[in-house]
């Protein structure tokens, strides 16, 4: 059995304080001298623990007399980067990520339809109304579309599903930006119109409590999106994220 290094144990302790709220985002940690005394370690060991947490985007460290370690609010981007690296290493095709997104969002739609409270669906309906004036602005519509897809999974009431969704959306958003840049202005207008109609229809089906129809509709829409964005290409994820 491998005994963890002192720096890893300190990092684990500080990480626990952050995730439990004992240390809040934006809060500055005690001085290095105070933490060295608390943990009974040398400055290099403490700084190694800081480097571990900096790599996880949990802390940021400013050097100098007025510096120190400050807590960052976790945003999932680090997990997304690691996930992207793992998928690239395994030679995952881009189409695989789109398929995973489809299964995740269709599940989220089922949860939304089954929920007793109408508040989350009303929020999605309001969000769907924001896209009508953005169809001709490809970058603005892409940002709005991302917010809508995030809204689908985050309003489903399952935190784990939402976190997994954000990791996939980070990857797909990178591909979408490359797709827009690779095509002439106006290329996506028809697709944007279809997407906006799909968003409004999804909200209506959910408000009508027709969960089965909502899931069928959303699966068809996401499969059409994959066909438009990827087609029959076997593009590897490494070509998108490298």
TrEMBL record:
Keyword DNA-binding: yes
An annotated Gene Ontology molecular function: DNA-binding transcription factor activity
PANTHER family: TRANSCRIPTIONAL REGULATOR, GNTR FAMILY, UXU OPERON TRANSCRIPTIONAL REGULATOR
InterPro entries: GntR_C, TF_FadR/GntR_C, Tscrpt_reg_HTH_GntR, WH-like_DNA-bd_sf, WH_DNA-bd_sf
The UniProt record lists the keyword Transcription regulation: yes
Name recorded for this polypeptide: GntR family transcriptional regulator
Residues covered by the HTH gntR-type domain: 4-74
One Pfam family from the record: GntR
Sorted UniProt keywords: DNA-binding, Transcription, Transcription regulation
CDD domains: WHTH_GntR
Superkingdom of the organism of origin: Bacteria
């Amino acid at each position: 059995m491998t005994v963890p290094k002192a720096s890893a144990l300190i990092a684990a302790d500080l990480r626990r304080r952050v995730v439990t709220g004992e240390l809040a985002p934006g809060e500055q940690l005690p001085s290095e001298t105070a933490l060295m005394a608390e943990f009974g370690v040398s400055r290099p060991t403490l700084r190694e623990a800081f480097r571990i947490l900096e790599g996880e985007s949990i802390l940021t460290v400013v050097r100098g007399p007025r510096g120190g370690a400050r807590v960052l609010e976790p945003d999932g981007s680090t997990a997304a980067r690691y996930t992207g690296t793992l998928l690239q290493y395994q030679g995952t095709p881009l189409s695989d990520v789109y398929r995973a997104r489809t299964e995740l969002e269709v599940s989220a739609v089922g949860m939304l339809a089954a929920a007793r409270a109408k508040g989350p669906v009303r929020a999605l309906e309001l969000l769907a109304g924001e896209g009508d004036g953005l169809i001709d602005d490809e970058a603005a519509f892409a940002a709005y579309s991302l917010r809508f897809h995030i809204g689908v999974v985050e309003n489903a009431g399952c935190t784990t599903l939402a976190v997994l969704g954000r990791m996939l959306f980070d990857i797909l958003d990178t591909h979408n930006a490359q797709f827009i840049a690779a095509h002439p202005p106006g290329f996506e207008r028809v697709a944007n119109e279809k997407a906006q109609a799909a968003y409004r229809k999804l909200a209506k089906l959910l408000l009508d409590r027709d969960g089965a129809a909502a899931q069928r509709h959303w699966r068809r829409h996401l499969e059409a999106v994959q066909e438009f964005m990827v087609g029959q290409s076997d593009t590897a994820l490494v070509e998108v994220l490298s």
